[in-house]
Design brief:
With 494 residues, this protein is mainly beta. The protein has three domains: 170 residues, Immunoglobulin-like (Sandwich); 140 residues, Cupredoxins -  blue copper proteins (Immunoglobulin-like, Sandwich), CATH 2.60.40.420; 135 residues, Immunoglobulin-like (Sandwich), CATH 2.60.40.420. The protein contains four helices and 32 strands. The strands form six sheets. Strands 1-23-22-25-30-27-28 form a seven-stranded mixed sheet. The radius of gyration is 22 Å and the shape is globular.
Length: 494
């Protein structure tokens, strides 16, 4: 495969197949709103082009070395997006996205969630190596008016770009599209790229109705996954990024969308990939003209100003993920502004040839197979659709697979559905061993840590992984509407 064009990379119990209309009526909190599409806000009415604001950070309340202690309050927040009046979001600490959490590998973490919503919620520490009981699983929902403290220690070697978001039974999709998500950076004690100016870009979906309020999911959203009119960058619409005078930046990019794939391009420039979900690569991958981030994935890039003399545009190009209906158009993400009078005229030093060592996990002692599938039929004039894992919809009371703590395993994940599905495994990172599409092997160009991997229709991906704590782990499609509609399973680690 040509490296320059390489594309990187719960919950319905006992419903059998579901009618979208019946489901919306039966579960008004989880799946609110019309079965058909409602009128949406004209995209031109949402202002754009302001300078990217500094992202708020979660303040460490502890004075003890090696302990990060803080509070996240989940509550409604009124944000003045339009001149006609504020838009109500749900947010952590009133911030969109939630405040950025920064810790160092080896730290102890204590974060208290205070739930001021009218729904139960959790915090899932997406991708982080934390025990099952601290990972915000749907079994451990925090009721309205209640609080819960998550406690875990982050081991040395887990530096990377993670994120946090809700994972309550049936309600995760709505809570995320209403604004509940934030970045979580685990910093290395020794970072080979520490001297490069850094920028965090959390990209999220926004769908507003004609009144400027967050629109509920309609039947198309539950079928395909939600894609609104806007892609926000750190909560802003198409902001301007004032590039560093050094002429080089390190970008951490999060795909915090419910379903939107981000085919990132910076026309006229190339990207150097240096990290994926679970941290740095062994060697920089230079000269990429685009990179695909599936929902839930993260990546780190080095971006050089080079010889540009224009305003660069970061865009999400058209990507056909096989959904029913129109393919999403290209979306502008941000404008990159370079003040060449301030950029250093000296040549930029080369990046390190080697960033980190990624060890092999060892010889596998067990194998598992996971199959994503979907089926749709018409019943009484309504679409009836199933999203399945190994032929079954999610059941909170059923264990689908079992593993032993410490055992190295190879998982074979096959997508037999008609559209792309991103596979996410809780509590650990994994290494992609191989990919196969329509009987043809696809080369894996480098070793990397992942917790989410995309599968095209008809594709099979093999991964190597290991779980370190006993308990229940979730594995599911990270299109949040599909997760809610059954495309999830439970792994019991003993």
């Amino acid at each position: 495969m040509d490296r320059r064009s390489f594309l990187g990379g719960m919950l319905l119990s006992g419903l059998g197949g579901f009618s979208l209309k019946t489901l919306a009526e039966t579960l008004p909190q989880a799946m609110p709103g019309p079965v058909g599409s409602a009128a949406l806000l004209d995209p031109a009415l949402l202002s754009a082009g302001a300078d990217l604001a500094a992202m708020p950070k979660l303040i460490n309340e502890s004075r003890q070395a090696g302990l990060f202690k803080a509070t996240l309050i989940a509550a409604p927040a009124r944000v003045p997006l339009l001149s006609t009046g504020p838009t109500e979001f749900w947010a952590y600490n009133g911030s969109l996205p939630g405040p950025l959490i920064e810790v160092t590998e080896g730290d102890n973490v204590e974060i208290t969630l205070v739930n001021q919503l009218t729904q139960p919620t959790t915090i899932h520490w997406h991708g982080l190596p934390v025990p099952p009981g601290q990972d915000g699983n749907p079994h451990d929902a925090v009721a309205p008016g209640q609080s819960h403290t998550y406690r875990f220690t982050l081991p040395v070697g887990c530096a990377g770009s993670y994120w946090y978001h809700p994972h309550p039974h049936l309600l995760a999709a709505e809570q995320v599209y209403r604004g509940m998500a934030g970045g979580f950076i685990v910093r290395a004690r020794q970072d080979p790229l520490a001297q490069i100016p850094e920028r965090s870009l959390i990209l999220s979906d926004l769908k507003l109705d004609a009144r400027g309020q967050i629109a509920p999911n309609d039947s198309d959203d539950w079928m395909n996954g939600r894609e609104g009119q806007f892609v926000l960058t750190n909560g802003q619409n198409r902001p301007v990024l004032r590039f560093s005078p050094q002429g080089r930046e390190r970008w951490r990019v999060w795909n915090a969308n419910s379903a939107r794939y981000l085919r990132l391009q910076l026309p006229g420039s190339t990207l150097t990939l240096v990290g994926t979900d679970g941290g740095l690569l062994e060697k920089p991958q230079a000269g990429l003209e685009e990179y695909l981030l599936a929902p839930g994935q993260r990546a780190e890039f080095i971006v050089d100003a080079g010889q540009r003399r224009d305003l660069a545009k970061l865009v999400s190009a058209v990507y056909d993920r096989g959904k029913m209906g129109d393919v999403a158009p290209e979306h502008p993400i941000a404008i990159l502004s370079v003040d060449f009078s301030a950029v250093s005229a000296s040549a930029l030093p080369p990046l390190p040839d080697k960033l980190v060592v990624i060890p092999d996990l060892g010889k596998p002692v067990a194998h598992k197979r996971v199959v994503f599938s979907e089926s749709m039929s018409m019943r009484n004039g309504q679409h009836e659709m199933k999203f399945l894992v190994n032929g079954r919809q999610y059941d909170m009371n059923r264990i689908d697979l079992k593993s032993r703590a410490g055992d190295v395993e190879v998982w074979e994940i096959a997508n037999q559905a008609d559209m792309d599905h991103p596979f996410h495994l809780h509590g650990t990172q994994f290494q992609v061993l191989s990919r196969e599409l329509d009987g043809e092997a696809i080369a894996v160009p480098y070793k990397a840590w992942h917790d989410t991997v995309n599968l095209k229709s008809g594709e099979t991906v093999r991964i190597k992984t290991v779980q370190h704590w006993p308990g229940i782990r979730m594995f599911h499609c990270h299109i949040l509407e599909h997760e809610a509609a059954g495309m999830m399973g439970q792994l019991k680690v003993i």
